Amino acid sequence: MKLAKNYEPNQYEADIYDLWEGSEAFTPKKGSHKDSFTIVMPPPNANANLHIGMGLTVAIQDAVIRHRRLKGKHALYLPGADHAGFETQSVYEKHLAKDGKSRFDFSRDELYAQIWDFVDENRGIFEKQVRQMGASCDWSRYTFTLDQKIIDQAYKTFKKMWDEGLIYRSERLVNYCTLHGTGFADIEVEHKEVNGKIWSIRYPLTDGSGEIIVATTRPETMLGDTAVAVHPKDPRYKDMVGKTVRLPLTHREIPIIADEYVDKGFGTGAVKITPAHDFNDSEVGKRHDLPVVQVISHGGLINHNAPEEYQNMDVSAARIRVVENLQKQDFLVETKDHLHSVGHCYKCGTVIEPMLKQQWFLDMKPLATEAIKVLKAKKITFYPDSKRQQLITYLENLWDWNLSRQIAWGVPIPAFVNIDDNEDWIFCDEVTKEEIEKNGKTYRRDPDVLDTWFTSSSWPYATLSESDQQQFYPNSLMETGGEILQPWVSRMIMLGLYEKGKIPFEEVYIHGYVMAEDGAKMSKSVGNVIDPMPVVEKYGSDAMRMGLISGRSAGVNRGYDNRRVEEARNFCNKIWNIARFVEDKLDQKPLKSFSPKPKTESDHWILHKLTEASDQINKNLENYKLSEAYDVLYHFVWDDFADWYIESAKTAPNAPILAHSLCSILKIAHPFAPFLTETIWQTLHPDDKSLLINQTWPKIGTYSKSKSDDFEKVQKVISEIRHIKTTLQIKKGGLYYIHAPFINLQSNLIKSLARLESVEQVRDGRGLTLISVDEKCWLDIDFESAERFSKQLAGQLGDIEKQIEILQSRLKNSTYVDKAPKDLVRESKDKLENLKKEHDLLSTQIAQYKGDL
Q1: Looking at domain 29-150+457-543, which of 3.40.50.620, 3.90.226.10, 3.40.50.410, 3.30.470.30 is its CATH number?
Q2: Mean pLDDT of the chain
Q3: Pick among 2.60.40.10, 1.10.730.10, 3.30.479.20, 2.30.42.10: CATH of 544-703
């Protein structure tokens, strides 16, 4: 079977993946931890199609895995999917809403069963899409976060923490979404800058001696105020501390207290304290033993603790009514516009309400302390390293973790309460039962489920069997997006150390967001989310993968650029056409059957360049510099092999060198373009059951450095002649030279590639002296042509100087540097640097060419 004229990815990719999977190429052999390499896939949500960010994840992870496999490692790429508790339930609730239904129309068990069916259907779609992206993951080890082994590990960890007193139940303020009816951990709250108001309100002193004016951004919560606070060193209020005020719109008196929490410079320097509805106020309340008056219900309505006029109003309506009444009763002093940060539910956008609720909490300090030690000791390597320090800062300021979620979809909390004593809680993992009998007492199960992050924090080891853990734990690499550095990576480190006494992974690579093409963040509501599957269908999986990797570095957000995908598609076509050229020289022998035997200078040169490229790509992949590795591959294949060696081989083909070079190219390109390279490999090994995926990194062979250097001189001469002829628009010409052995040996090649009429050795040359090599050689052109060439170079130099001036002016503009997209600024700086180099080179050339004028 011969390679087709054109490469059509969709004709090959599915069959190639089936070949890999059917051959168990993704399943690693048994071996030592030292000889193994592991990536456990961060489980994507099983509730919808994959997005372009997952395309980048697979592109990076699979390139690394395939490289380590070629390097002889027992490489495990373990796939999985996340039940994504709250996110999945909220997605399903939107489906219900389309049918005019809600979660309240079903029992907890009915809702759970419906979501399970919904997720089960989507899991099939997810698995198909991961396969289409070319992920070489071991599907025999596929894990879902609701698999029994994950639940068992979560309960084992919960029990250990329960026994050690790390898990406790408390009524505390939690971040609460009144629409979805569930609490969140602090890290899950999305903070947005909001153009709001700040109201200044008059609180009269009870003794009639005056008033104190407080500033607030939430006047409706004043109905639950239990104090007014001032700074102890604020002289304005020194004599008021200890007195009481009448709380406007109510019949209550509250004290004026002094606390260092108050910012003297904010508003009036006096603030209302509402312990039931503000985290900072709650801490102040604890320090001063203030009562807690909750005036907002879990349904988002004003409750019975507020005056009757406001009861059952939603928060927004209550705010309007409170402000109106404050104004009518002359308590409102002034209203100002105010930009401030407000917490929102990351799914529905509802403003998060700090709400008192009985929840299960995890004491994070002991866990964070151990993780900080490990991070400071650099026992885990981060790419980029700045993420390690970010994690340390986060852990040093970590609050206790709210583990409870008030939803149906998830892992039930394994805790039961005595129906006759709500202080009597016991651990029990018989969560399929609503009630259990223990020691003659009846206990009812907590209806809440565990935070999804708790169950997935054991991912690096819970996904592995006990025997697998010996070989693959700690994992080698955790590669993931920066948005889950704190909620997930930090917790995997803490739980890995807590449960296993070891770090969960040796290295962490954080990739940036794939932004929209205009640099904005992708959003379904905006409509700028890119679906990767149409990209795969149009350009092929390999082109999408290389297009996403190109120009991207660790931790840096970068916009999706379809031009890079098109360039990668063209690169695939270039490799395909190279393979077709080589195929014609193989005489139907298998590609890998040839041994390289260099004959010409170009043979030695290509082995030299191939060695350099292979070493650079290997080094870059070892250090997770994927874009740099791809760039080396791209330029070697296109510039060195296709543009130079293939062209030189047309005059004197060396089949063993061509075959060996193509064989090596397929191997070093395989991590980036697995489908393309395996397709070529299979076609050129028709009677061989070998798979490219199972081959080893290439060993290039020996070459002569001096002969390679001679070919580089040939390249310089040809390139210079081409440049002069193109500039002058001349088609003919000859080359004269005096004692240049490299020209003697390769005169036919120079004549062919430079399109010359003749190449002659002479005693004394004439024409334009070539400056690219030390040997004396001339291009046979007349004086007028040489003078015209020099003037054109001077004109090019002038154009470059103008471009340099424009870029320098732009980069001196602080507004441009500070406010323009970072990618654009970096591009301008790179362009300026390249223009300066081009300017220096051109100036040197002009000076040298003037010697002939």
Answers
A1: 3.40.50.620
A2: 91
A3: 1.10.730.10
Distances (CA, A) of 821 to 482, 520, 553, 566, 815: 19, 10, 16, 23, 11
- In whole angstroms, give the CA distance from residue 518 to residue 530: 12
The b/e string for 777-793 (b: 16+ C-beta within 10 A; e otherwise) is bbbbbeeebbeebbeeb
Q: Could you write out the three-class secondary structure of 200-267?
A: EEEEEECCCCCEEEEEECCHHHHHHCCEEEECCCCHHHCCCCCCEEECCCCCCEEEEEECCCCCCCCC
Under the banding of pLDDT at 50, 70 and 90, the label for residue 712 is: very high
Residue with the bigger pLDDT between 98 and 394: it is: 394
Helix (H) or strand (E) holding 648: helix 647-649
Indicate the burial class of 120 (C-beta count within 10 angstroms; 0-12, 13-18, 19 or more): exposed
Q: Is residue 851 predicted with pLDDT exceeding 70? A: no
Q: How many CB atoms lie within 10 A of CB 324?
A: 11
Cα–Cα distance for residue pair 634/657, rounded to 1 Å: 20
* 604-644 pLDDT tens trace: 999 999 999 999 999 999 999 999 999 999 999 999 999 99
Hey, what are 183's tokens? 């609490």
> How far is 501 from 365, CA to CA, in rounded Å?
17
Mean pLDDT calculated for residue range 595-611:
94
d(CA 794, CA 809): 23
d(CA 312, CA 322): 14
DSSP 68-130: HHHTT-EEEEE-EEB--HHHHHHHHHHHHHHTT--GGGS-HHHHHHHHHHHHHHHHHHHHHHH
Burial 167-205 (b: 16+ CB within 10 A, else e): bebeebbbbbbbebebbbbbbbeeeeeeeeebbbbbbee
Using DSSP bridges, classify how beta strands 514-515 and 558-559 pair: parallel, antiparallel or unpaired.
Answer: parallel
CA distance 325 to 149: 58
Q: Domain 190-344: what homologous superfamily?
A: Valyl/Leucyl/Isoleucyl-tRNA synthetase, editing domain (3.90.740.10)
**What is the enclosing helix (H) or strand (E) of 418?**
strand 415-418
Per-residue pLDDT, 362: 97
Extract the tokens encoding 565: 């995908």
Q: For residue 401, what are the β-bridge partners?
A: 362
Q: Which helix (H) or strand (E) element contains residue 568?
A: helix 562-583
Taking the CA atoms of the chain, what radius of gyration do you get in angstroms?
35
Which amino acid, one-letter code, is at 780?
Answer: D
**Bond before 474 cis per omega within 30 degrees:** yes
Look at residues 438, 3, 33, 353 and name the one whose alpha carbon lies nearest to residue 179.
353
Nearest residue to 220 via CA among 314, 343, 361, 146: 314
Judge contact between 531 and 52, C-beta under 8 A: yes
Band (852; pLDDT cuts 50, 70, 90)? low
Alpha-carbon gap, residue 83 to 47, rounded angstroms: 8
Tokens describing residue 495: 């739980």
- pTM over 0.70, yes/no: yes
Partner residues linked to 172 by β-bridges: 357
